[in-house]
Amino acid sequence: MWQLYQFPLCPFSRKLRLLMGEKNVAYELVRENPWEGRDEFWHLNPAGRTPVLHDAGRGTALSDSQAICEYLEETVDRNPMINGSALQRAEIRRLVALFDDNFFADVTEPALHEKMKKRIVLRQSPDAQVLRQLGRMLHGHLDYIDWLVDTRQWLAGPQLSLADLTCAAHLSVVEYLGAIDWKGHEQTQGWYMVVKSRPSFRPLLSEKMEGIPPPREYASLDL
User: In a 10 Å sphere around its CB, with 0-12 CB exposed, 13-18 middle and 19+ buried, how is residue 8 labelled?
Assistant: First the structure.
């Protein structure tokens, strides 16, 4: 069985967990805090980042969430999540990159730093100015997701895809940290609740980060 090295609020690990859930791929969770810099973990991934998918029996260690997702797409026939025509697949990959790169840099990463790392690692208070800027950037991204929801059945086209799972993974981290405001973004909130209601999402909703309780509405599936 695969071992998935991750920590509960890693959006890239969540993206991979959602994909593996949709594909019904079994795995065992292994808790890894990348900021601890364990030699054993660096041996699996010299970049020192989660997630890592490891099979000790086969001597296989896969790292980088997108590389792992592409590997699973190529090796697991069930429920393809990078699907459709060449143009549709390109659009899925474009949106995955948008969420993993731009949304992460503008929203997820500063939220994690201010509301998680400062609290449990650095023992510091969050910077209110950074949180305000994060909120402004979040609303800009939500405006774009609203447009996608208004013009398509799913974010990248007519079918659920890795783009939806990636976006939902990042939003779930921001929501867990209490840094999301849905006001004026009912389209995105409605789409997110649909994804959040899928069986693949349930393990994420039940997992907690010690010392950082989620807001009450985090596990709710009601608008």
Answer: middle
> 205 with 214: CB under 8 angstroms?
no
Could you tell me if 94 and 166 are in contact, meaning their C-beta atoms sit under 8 angstroms apart?
A: no
Cα–Cα distance for residue pair 133/128, rounded to 1 Å: 9
Q: How much is the pLDDT for 220?
A: 86
**How much of the chain exceeds pLDDT 90, in percent?**
94
Q: At residue 185, what is the residue type?
A: H
Q: Kindly state the average pLDDT of the residues 100-116.
A: 97
Residue 166's alpha-carbon distances to 45, 55, 169, 186, in angstroms, are: 21, 24, 5, 19
- Nearest-angstrom CA–CA distance, 112 and 7: 12
Give the SS3 label for residue 5. Answer: strand
Whether the full predicted model's pTM is greater than 0.85, yes or no, is: yes
Query: Contact, 128 vs 159, CB < 8 A?
Result: no
Burial of 69 (0-12, 13-18, 19+ CB in 10 A): buried
Residue 194's pLDDT is what?
A: 97
pLDDT, one tens digit per residue, over 142-188 is 999 999 999 999 999 999 999 999 999 999 999 999 999 999 999 99
Separation of alpha carbons 68 and 88, rounded Å: 20
| Nearest partner of 110 among 83, 137, 76, judged by Cα | 137
Distance (Å, whole) CA 41 – CA 61: 10
d(CA 38, CA 158) in angstroms, rounded, equals: 43
Tokens of 78: 């069930």
